[in-house]
Amino acid sequence: MPVRVLMSGAAQAAAGESIARVFAGRPHAFVSPGADADLAFVSRDVTGLSTKHVVLPETQRFYDALLSAPSLRWVHVHSAGADRPVYCELLQRGIRLSTSSGANAEVVVQTALAGILALTRRLPQLMEAQRRHEWAPLIGAALPRDLAGQTALVVGWGPIGQGIAALLRALGVGVAVARSSDAPAGADIETARYEEIDRLLPRADWLILACPLSPRTTSLIDAARIGLLPPGAHVVNVARGAVLDEAALIAALASGRIAGAHLDAFAHEPLAADSPLWGAANVIVTPHSAGHSDGNEERVRAAFLANLRRWLAGDALLHEVDAISSP
């Protein structure tokens, strides 16, 4: 009986020969949605423009195939996160699930830094002045603070959090870290568990969310914790929308207590057209695309192939999701 692999036609065309080399003569067959499968690869083209809240028909067809395959034992996904409802259902069925964690980390780090620099240098306001054909130098009340000497609280200490922290420290920014454990993030980096974040928030000029979504991080930054940030702080979210109380942040931005935000993830996606975030002068909105680049497909494919070798050999999978810690 060949090992049946469920994947999109595009993914098969791109990776079919590489997959065959991994199987090394062992019988295998590629199957389409509707057929039973032993393993599946959810590539970026499968999810397309679907979000965890709005699933388009072609994506739903693939999800239904995953949920209805009686022999399915393992699914590898293109994303670093596995918080979509379909993945939670698979985990509840006992199906193994692995992610492509780290494949887009460098790109997300670059996006977060771009947002920080843009807010620091008040590029949203300058671009708005450009659209008005208005000469509006950053002087007087518009004079920005130096970034060097400020403090960033990085929430999450995976490849993304570590990458952001390294670049900020190179720019003279002090870094504190909230993470899943209280193990020190560095010899001179103040570190706290997620549950102890309150003691770090009052000194955070920048709150940077780069953590996975889990029961411990869902609603981690609520209205009370936003209130602990110092006046004039900024918020950057390249994690998940459910980590942050969006309504409380909108209120803090409108009052001026929070000076600005770069948001790539939202409570509901796509972000509603009538959300006040779209028109806020001190907010950069990006459509959950912080990690998108033309090199991701190859890196994700490499992650899948590495795990395929492990799965066939009976070894532990890389970046396997723990059902207990999934949202």
In short:
The chain is an alpha/beta fold. It has helices spanning 9-23, 44-47, 57-68, 85-92, 105-120, 123-131, 159-170, 223-228, 246-255, 296-313; strands at 3-6, 28-31, 39-42, 74-77, 96-98, 151-155, 174-179, 190-193, 206-209, 233-237, 258-263, 283-285.
Write the layout of secondary structure elements.
Layout lengths: L2 E4 L2 H15 L4 E4 L7 E4 L1 H4 L9 H12 L5 E4 L7 H8 L3 E3 L6 H16 L2 H9 L19 E5 L3 H12 L3 E6 L10 E4 L12 E4 L13 H6 L4 E5 L8 H10 L2 E6 L19 E3 L10 H18 L14
Parallel strand pairs: 1-2, 1-3, 3-4, 4-5, 6-7, 6-9, 7-8, 9-10, 10-11, 11-12
Helix pairs in contact: 1-10, 5-7
By CATH, the architecture of the largest domain is named 3-Layer(aba) Sandwich
Q: Any idea what the CATH superfamily of the largest domain is called?
A: NAD(P)-binding Rossmann-like Domain
Tell me the domain tally.
2
Helix/strand class: alpha/beta
SSE order, one letter for each helix or strand: EHEEHHEHEHHEHEEEHEHEEH
Distance between the termini: 36 Å
Helix-residue proportion: 25-40%
Roughly what is the average pLDDT, rounded to an integer?
Answer: 97
In the CATH scheme, what's the topology name of the largest domain? Rossmann fold
Taking pLDDT < 50 over at least 5 consecutive residues as the criterion, the unreliable ranges are none
Number of helices: 10
Explained architecture:
The radius of gyration is 22 Å and the shape is elongated. It folds into 2 domains: 3-103 and 293-313, 3-Layer(aba) Sandwich (Rossmann fold); 105-285, 3-Layer(aba) Sandwich (Rossmann fold), CATH 3.40.50.720. Helix 1 links the parallel strand 1 (3-6) and strand 2. The longest helix is centred in the C-terminal third of the chain and has 18 residues, at 296-313. The chain has helices at residues 9-23, 44-47, 57-68, 85-92, 105-120, 123-131, 159-170, 223-228, 246-255, 296-313, and strands at residues 3-6, 28-31, 39-42, 74-77, 96-98, 151-155, 174-179, 190-193, 206-209, 233-237, 258-263, 283-285. The mean pLDDT is 97. Helix content is 34%, strand content 16%. The chain has 327 residues and is an alpha/beta fold. The chain has a 7-stranded parallel sheet with strand order 8-7-6-9-10-11-12. A 5-stranded parallel sheet has the order 2-1-3-4-5, with helices on both faces. Helix 1 (9-23) packs across helix 10 and helix 5 (105-120) crosses helix 7 (159-170). The protein starts with a strand and ends in a 14-residue tail after the last helix.
